[in-house]
Specification:
The protein has 5 helices and 7 strands; from the N terminus they run E-H-E-H-E-H-E-E-E-H-E-H. By secondary structure, it is of the alpha/beta class. The longest helix has 15 residues.
Length: 157
């Protein structure tokens, strides 16, 4: 079991491909939680993911409910997975979080983040502090920043 980056209903294939490439390069597993705004086949990610896609483990879940059922099964098997949501609505800075090697870092849709029920289902929510006039970072950039901090804390870099 290792750190996982989960993409909630991704809607921009280039960003998803970029995040999957980062997972491959950093040794992080990936999960895609559907439905997505585009086909989530490997060929849909080829442009941004390039030839790295065969180096990343990608779990695909048809819905958030299916993802939660999978998490429940992990917990029942004695392998709970904490869900850490990256969100501009969070109050905790991502650097204040003590990451665990089995955490799932969840990013929302580029266009709208995550709905309230997904926000509430997270065990923890973190944000990247930004200048007050800034609305948000690109989701792939945010994922890379937080994933890198988690890996730094875990001594994996």
């Amino acid at each position: 079991m290792s750190l996982t980056l989960a993409l909630y209903q991704p809607d921009i294939p280039q960003n998803a491909g970029t995040m999957l490439r980062a997972c491959a390069c950093l040794g992080v597993e990936a999960a895609i939680i559907g439905p997505s705004g585009f086909p989530t086949t490997d060929s849909a990610f080829r442009r941004a993911g390039m030839d790295y896609l065969n180096q990343v483990t990608i779990a695909r879940h048809v819905s958030f409910d299916a993802f939660q059922t999978w998490r429940s099964a992990c917990a029942a098997a004695g392998e709970p997975r904490r869900l850490v949501l990256l969100s501009t609505r969070a109050t905790m800075s991502y650097v204040a979080c003590n990451y665990r090697s089995d955490d799932i870092l969840l990013v929302g849709r580029e266009s709208s983040g995550v709905p309230d029920d997904v926000f509430e289902a997270a065990d923890l929510a973190v944000k990247i502090p930004m200048r007050p006039q800034a609305r948000s970072l690109n989701v792939a950039v945010a994922a890379a920043i937080v994933t890198s901090e988690a890996l730094r804390q875990l001594g994996a870099l």
